[in-house]
Design goal:
The complex is a heterotrimer of chains A (245), B (215) and C (228).
Chain A (H helix, E strand, L loop, with lengths): L10 H33 L13 H27 L3 H33 L7 H21 L4 H33 L17 H30 L5 H8 L1
Helix pairs in contact in A: 1-6, 2-3, 2-5, 2-6, 3-4, 3-5, 3-6, 4-5
Chain B lengths: L12 E10 L2 E11 L4 E5 L6 H9 L6 E6 L2 E2 L4 H6 L1 E4 L11 H10 L6 H10 L15 H14 L4 E5 L7 H16 L3 E5 L11 E5 L3
Parallel strand pairs in B: 3-8, 3-9, 6-7, 7-8
Antiparallel strand pairs in B: 1-2, 1-4, 4-5
Chain C lengths: L5 H18 L1 H21 L4 H33 L2 H6 L5 H30 L7 H26 L6 H27 L5 H29 L3
Helix pairs in contact in C: 1-2, 1-5, 2-3, 2-5, 3-5, 3-6, 3-7, 5-6, 5-8, 6-7, 6-8, 7-8
The chains are: A mainly alpha (245), B alpha/beta (215), C mainly alpha (228).
Chain lengths: 245, 215, 228
């Protein structure tokens, strides 16, 4: 079945590489997240204003930045797939969406838990949380569009267009939401962002951030493998792989 | 109508090793064909064998898994505009608006490709023998009259290559004869016709070939 | 036989769609009635007191406009795709993006512009002072243009999908949120007697951005949709 190999990167090669790389991402991620958690929950001093409540930021901030990074990565993958007709890039974009959506959900959940002691409500129309919510809608729309096509190739290209339109829109959404919020109230007392912190409070955050990125890479390896399996279910190399293991 | 940059010795249309998947099904497995000026090529085969898909690939509507389609020696991806100007495509659907009259339908569909006068439109309607329907909304036409109207559009687009998907569907005996005459004239003028057909046209003539797609 | 120019083609498509709309005027009027009905729901659901309604009026008009625009999108491309016209367009040797832009412009003429014209009536019913009408109409004029373009991208993506109308709303509404924010805020600011130049400029900028990039996305999406 040479037909399956004429594209830039061959699925079996990508499949094997992802499998080989996975532990190199996964175990460092576990280690870094463990260190970051210990550093954030135990070693870092209590904030004089926010007490212990700020500690949730060690989860909130990395997932917030990942949620946006993954969306951009997804759009880049989609664009590459669209322009160079590269199937692997489409598979990458498809694998990005659910991970990114989960990071977004995690951001919203931790944001709302943080909001309870800080603002006294579970939900505040804070500009960051609001744009994160719109980002979740964009992810959900992307996944819904992809699911509505029976043909994988058409699903790939249609959702790629949506991802590109979405990524152009993300800064507009972000800006408009900030503008919208600034009209309503002055800058809030405790913004849901990394406060200007130093030393003992900062390093666990950076460690966590790196841990999250590696965790994303590890999950991506798994997801892209299953995505390749699904797409290549008729290809002959799969039975060879089956024989190997 | 040929472009100065094109290779005059090359066949008008050449497709090589066209592969196409639909879902899990490997539908077209390396189809090759060539078409010269003045030739009619009829693609035959049982239902579901991929005749329509092949025509759509050749027209450039459906991306192929692999393979090449050349127009006058150049890949159609490189000369899409030239190719599309030289191409008239008739699908199963007639591309008619039920709320517009026959004349308006022609005016709007042909008008996208070339400037035409109402006189030319009426002449062509007369040629396909539905001149009396010119001011009737398309919804009032019979299935055969709608097909004739769609054929009128193909005649008016002034194209070199006609790609016609089961063109004689719904046509009566007189309509089929009329259509065969139109095809024969087009071939004599140096045009080329590619059809998917269940019923062969112009049998026994030179320059008429069939290509059988096997399941 | 000479090939017609781009402007001539756009004129041809606008003329065709207007003619079709006149022969099917009910489909044009329905979203407008929907617009009026939705704005009627709010006084019923919240309060008949005008000073209370006045506070939420900009948002109400804008949300209703967004929903009405969404409702009319469903039929923007579907008839042309189903009867095979769209694949003829895709093969017409004319830029598909320009053809679709012309169609989207007609959609705005038939769905956006009537909302603009009706906005003073609806605004009055919700207690908006006459001094705000121009801003309301202008914000709707700029905003519904953007809504039509973003909506057309969504419609082109979902036109080949069975029962795509819920999906269409899911895709398009999040993309349209910035337009809603600027539009409703502009009217709000006008009511408070503040300058509305900022948001209106931003809306004009968005309209230009969408009008220049949107047709490319529409055409790319439409080529995928006519593949079946």
């Amino acid at each position: 079945m040479w037909l399956w190999f004429h594209k830039l990167s061959s699925p079996p090669h990508a499949f094997r590489t992802a499998g080989r790389l996975r532990p190199w991402f996964f175990w460092p991620a576990v280690l870094l997240i463990a260190i970051g958690t210990f550093g954030g929950l135990v070693l870092a001093p209590e904030d004089y204003q926010q007490k212990d409540a700020f500690r949730i930021l060690y989860v909130h901030v990395p997932s917030a930045s990942l949620s946006l990074m993954v969306y951009v990565a997804m759009a880049v993958g989609a664009a590459i797939g669209l322009i160079w007709r590269m199937k692997l890039a489409h598979a990458f974009a498809a694998a990005c969406a659910p991970i990114g959506a989960w990071f977004t959900v995690l951001t919203l959940a931790t944001g709302s838990i943080y909001g309870k002691p800080m603002w006294g409500t579970w939900w505040e129309w804070d500009p960051r949380l609001t744009s994160e919510l719109i980002l979740l809608f964009l992810y959900l729309g992307y996944m819904a569009l992809r699911a509505s096509f029976d043909d994988t190739q058409r699903a790939d290209r249609a959702s790629a267009i949506l991802a590109i339109v979405g990524v152009v829109n993300v800064p507009i959404v972000k800006y408009s939401v900030v503008w919208w919020n600034s009209l309503h109230q002055g800058p809030s007392i405790s913004k849901l962002s990394a406060p200007s912190i130093h030393g003992s409070m900062l390093w666990p955050l950076l460690v966590m951030m790196l841990g999250f990125v590696l965790y994303f890479a590890a999950v991506m390896c798994d997801r892209i493998r299953s995505e390749i399996l699904r797409r290549e279910r008729n290809a002959s190399w799969l039975s060879e792989i089956d024989a190997e293991t | 109508m040929s472009q100065p940059s094109s290779d005059s010795t090359a066949p008008l249309l050449r497709a090589s090793a066209v592969h196409l998947w639909r879902g899990d099904k490997h539908l077209l497995r390396g189809v090759n064909l060539t078409l010269q000026r003045g030739e009619l090529l009829q693609i035959v085969g049982p239902n579901g064998v991929g005749k329509t898909s092949l025509l759509r690939c050749l027209a450039g509507l459906l991306p192929m898994e692999s393979g090449e389609v050349h127009w006058e020696g150049r890949p159609i991806s490189e000369c899409r505009d030239v190719y599309q100007r030289a191409l008239a495509y008739l699908a199963h659907a007639n591309a008619l608006k039920n709320d517009l009259t026959a004349l308006e339908n022609l005016r709007f569909s042909v008008g996208l490709r070339c400037t035409v006068t109402d006189e030319m439109l009426l002449d062509t309607l007369a040629r396909v023998q539905i001149a009396h329907c010119a001011d009737l909304p398309a919804r009032a036409l019979s299935a055969g009259q709608k097909r004739r109207l769609a054929i009128a559009r193909v005649l008016l687009t002034n194209a070199t290559l006609w790609i016609l998907d089961e063109p004689i569907t719904n046509l009566d005996v007189a309509g089929i004869e009329l259509f065969e005459r139109c095809v024969a004239e087009h071939l004599e003028r140096g045009g080329a016709v590619l059809t998917a057909a269940h019923q062969l046209l112009l049998t026994g003539r030179p320059n008429v070939r069939t290509l059988e797609l096997a399941a | 036989m000479s090939a017609p120019g781009l402007l001539g083609i756009m004129r041809l498509i606008v003329a065709r769609d207007l003619k079709l709309a006149v022969r099917h005027w009910d489909q044009v009027v329905q979203p407008l009635i929907f617009f009026v009905i939705v704005t009627t729901l709010f006084p019923l659901a919240i309060s008949p007191a005008l000073d209370e309604l006045r506070r939420i009026a900009p948002g109400v008009v804008w949300v209703a406009a967004m929903l009405a625009s969404l409702l009319s999108l469903e039929s923007l491309f579907r008839p042309d795709v189903e009867d095979g016209t769209m694949e003829q367009w895709a093969l017409s040797a004319q830029p598909l993006s320009i053809l679709l832009l012309a169609k989207t412009f007609t959609h705005w003429l038939l769905s956006g512009l009537p909302l603009v014209l009706m906005s003073p009536v609806v605004g009055t019913a919700l207690g908006l002072p006459a001094s705000v009408w121009p801003v309301l109409a202008l914000s709707l004029a700029l905003g519904t243009g953007s809504l039509s373009i973003l909506g057309a991208i969504g419609a082109a993506l979902t036109v080949a999908v069975r029962r795509g109308n819920v999906l269409l709303a899911l895709l398009v509404l999040p993309l349209e949120m910035p337009v809603l924010i600027f539009g409703a805020r502009a009217v709000d600011l006008a009511m408070q007697g503040e300058s509305v130049v900022g948001p209106l400029n931003l809306m004009a900028a968005l309209l230009l951005l969408f009008a220049s990039l949107g047709p490319i996305a529409m055409a790319a999406a439409m080529r995928i949709s006519v593949e079946t």
